[in-house]
Amino acid sequence: MNKDIFLTNNLSNKKEKFVPLNEKKIGMYVCGPTVYDNPHIGNARPLVIFDILFKVLKFKYGKKFVTYIRNITDVDDKIIKSSLEKNIPIKELTKNIIESFTNDCNYLNCERPSEQPKATDHIDIMIKMISELIEKGCAYESNNHVYFQVNKFKDYGKLSNKKLEDLIAGSRVEVSENKKSPEDFVLWKPSTDNEPYWESPWGKGRPGWHLECSAMSKKFLGNEFDIHGGGIDLLFPHHENEIAQSRCANNTKTFANYWVHNAFITMSNEKMSKSQGNILKIKDFKNKTNGQVLRLALMSAHYKQPLDWNDKLLEDCKNTIEKWYDLYLPVKNLSKISDDILLPLYDDLNTPGYIANLHQLYDKALKGQDNEKKLFISACNFIGLLTETREEWLNFKKKKSLISEEDIQKKIALRDKAREDKDYIKSDLIRNELLDKGVLIEDKNGKTVWKFK
Asked: pTM of the prediction?
């Protein structure tokens, strides 16, 4: 049985066997948030997907041999615009959004990456990289701007699988009289008096967005590393530009060997976006939905496929976890997990296949002994599920319920009396009233039992 890891590599548009550059030094870089607004559910998908890949790599190669870098972009035009709209200083805005992002990661039960560098802490190495690109004739200064000259890199467009002229025609390039060609992209731009700036050989200014990731990945992972990840929307121009400037600056034939991108989240098959008015913030779920439910929902479709977000998806995931918690046992370690159980995850992070494995393990555990239950819980724990105790799971549901347990029992007694009197209309009204307050009641073996939804 094949125990190798396979990933879909957008550089080749094929599923490939993962062969690390060095099994003792595996590197993965994933583009993190631009901290101008609270993260939305679309931002949550790569958080969960690459968290799972991080777990798989650590399990396969050993925790100390895997480095996962996820940056934070805290200087960008979007941040400047948002601070002006909100009338908040940039430092205060970015501090608040980073805190919100961290809370969202904890809510989704995502591990902290090995390092989470901020762009503003690495301006010096960005300036150094720009200087190197100018010296090599790959970039030029124009009116206090510095641009990367795209036609100096012959492989431009290889990741996007398009020719340069097609990319230019099909995208919105920044038109500027400072550029030699419309497709050239900015590495450094001047700042006005009320914008953040750093001193540089080209005057007071700030780096371009694409350059930030190239500089930070180089610092933490070197000139070449194994995996670069992010949402599919970053493939062009962001990741294409990263490859161009990094390979030119570093004199390498490769940058990252495997490019892994997750597909969009949709609503009613429409891409989630501000222009569509269908943005759902992660923080808006926190008081009504356990983070494990969102986590399971985010891995319910293969990462390469769009995920349509709806109430039924969340309800199905909540019911699944509710059922699984019936078998909960505290498990200290994951030593019983085998490669055979993890095979779907080895096969291009097939999370739906792994969830199907969990359902099979649940069915066996339901009829088996404690060792089968522990194996099931361990397999759930591996992908960040059932990591809370059963009491914590139930307490969350209690918190969001709109009625006390004492009042629930009173309502059930009134319903029992109505059923004795054959007043079924009143009985149904009480059932529906409890349901509206987050309490589900069922009649089993002549008794009424209840649970929080």
From this structure: 0.87
pLDDT by residue for the chain (453 residues), tens digit each?
568 999 999 999 999 999 999 999 999 999 999 999 999 999 999 999 999 999 999 999 999 999 999 999 999 999 999 999 999 999 999 999 999 999 999 999 999 999 999 999 999 999 999 999 999 999 999 999 999 999 999 999 999 887 777 666 545 556 678 899 989 999 999 999 889 999 999 999 999 999 999 999 999 999 999 999 999 999 999 999 999 999 999 999 999 999 999 999 998 777 776 666 678 999 989 888 999 999 999 999 999 999 999 999 999 999 999 999 999 988 776 657 888 899 999 999 999 999 999 999 999 999 888 889 999 999 999 999 999 999 889 887 666 656 777 788 888 889 988 888 888 888 888 888 887 777 888 887 778 888 776
CA distance 17 to 226: 12
Domains contained in the chain, CATH given? 6-265 (3.40.50.620), 310-395 (no CATH), 401-452 (no CATH)
CA–CA distance, 175 with 190 (Å, rounded to integer): 16
Residue 265: closest CA among 452, 21, 41, 96: 41
